[in-house]
Amino acid sequence: MTGKREKMQLWGISIDRVNRREAMAVFHQLMDEPGCSMIVTPNSEIVMAASKDEEMKALLDEADLTIPDGIGLVYASKILKQPLTERVTGIDLADAALAALAKEGKSVYFLGSKPDGGEGMSVAQMAARRKEAEYEGLVVSGTHDGYFSPEEEERIVREINDSGASLLLVALGSPKQEKFIRRHRGELNVKVAMGVGGSLDVWAGTLKRAPEFYRKHGLEWLYRLIQEPSRYKRMAVLPLFMIKVIVTKGRKKNGN
Is residue 238 part of a domain? Predict the structure, then answer.
């Protein structure tokens, strides 16, 4: 990635200090660069996992753009006196990228989510149909659900390459989606690959995104918990994350 950007450092992990407009500017740069660039969208949970997982930490370090997807990261940055400009969600960045592709005549490949989303289609196929209807000129050159074995990965990579897509959106959940991209980025012909979590489900209409009030106040996690109570164990990471941030601030203040 050409050019240097300001970054927030947290437990040896770098987060780009970008707003939505700046993140899109970086996306356009990456689309013009050789090879397959990787965009990652960490939240508090992912950063906590990476602080204990060397592979995930290396993956975040290797990314060409690391946006602050979680509101917890924004709060942490203020506590540590490294304020991030704003929260930049993965779904919003991916959506803006699709709008840009539609104008530029480039295509995208959707990989992930469930094989049965209803209406005889996978979630990825439903998301593709809706996004092509939303953005005139957008072409989803291929889709594949997220239920495949390791032995099938090489075939799926060939299908992605054969599709001619410029952008690959992977919805396998973190860290599986990021590790898939890292594992195959040397083989992929796409210009940019990005993990998008539950975005395909939202676009397909099988999962409802939090209303504006929740998004504006950083409470999307609460809305998701209401929709999916089984996520409560994952949500328990949030207070632990903030406690660790406060401890880190105390150590820095004491010079440790």
Answer: no
